Amino acid sequence: MYTWQEDQLNVLHTIECEHNLFKMIVSLARDLGFDLCAYGLRMPLPLSRPKTAIFNNYPIAWQNRYQEKGYLAIDPTVQHGMRSPLPVIWSDNLFAPVSEFWEDARSFGLEFGWAQSSRDAKGTVGMLTLARSDESLSEAELRVKGLRMAWFTQVAHLGMSRLITSKMIPEAEVQLSNREIEVLRWTGDGKTSSDISDTLNISERTVNFHIANAMIKLNTSNKAAAVVRAAMLGMLY
Fold this sequence. Notes:
Helix content is 54%, strand content 13%. The protein is α+β, with helices and mostly antiparallel strands. Strands 2-1-5-4-3 form a 5-stranded antiparallel sheet, with helices on both faces. The longest helix has 30 residues, at 139-168. The two termini are 38 Å apart.
C-alpha cells in the first residue's frame, strides 16, 4: 500500500503541465483543511530583477490588487522565505510593518495562513502558502499536520521547478564539461588565464578555449558573467 508521501511523488512524476500540477496542489491543500493556496517561484536570474512565477486560487480582485500595489516587494512572508526555510504563520506581529497590506489582504478573506519556502540545487526558491478565512491554526493542528505540510512544500517545489525553471531560464539545463567547470572556478577565485594555465598545466590558449565555450553555453558576453551565472545555477559545486 502506498503511503501518502509515495502518492504525491507518483503524481509529481506524471504531471507535465504546471497548471495541472497547481490544480493538484489546490486539491491537496483542501485535504489539509485550507481552501486557499499559492505557490510562487523565484529564479536565481537575472540578478538585477529575478524572474518569478506565481500560481494561486485567491480571489481575482485580490490578485489584481496584489499586482497593482506591488505587494510582492513588501510581503513579509516572501521576505521570510528568502531568508529562512522554516515555516511561518501569519500573525499581526509578522505584518505589523506593512499594516495597510495586512488590512487589505484580510478584506479579501485572507485571515489565517502558513507558508514555507524551499530551495533547489539550481538556486530556484519556491514558497507554498496555505490559507483560509474561517479558523486560526492551532498548535494541536500543526502538531498533527506539520510534517505533511512540510513534505507537501518539498513535493510542490520539485514538481514546479522541474516544469518551469527550464522555460524561464534555459541556461539552467546547460551541461558544462568538467574542465569548463574547473576553469570557471579558478576564474571566480580571481585567477587570470595565465595563472590557471600554470595551475592546471595546460596552455593559456586552452584555458581561454574552455572559458569561451562556457560563455557560449551560458549565453554571456564576458567571463565574469559566465562565472556568476554558473555559480547562481549551482554548476560550480
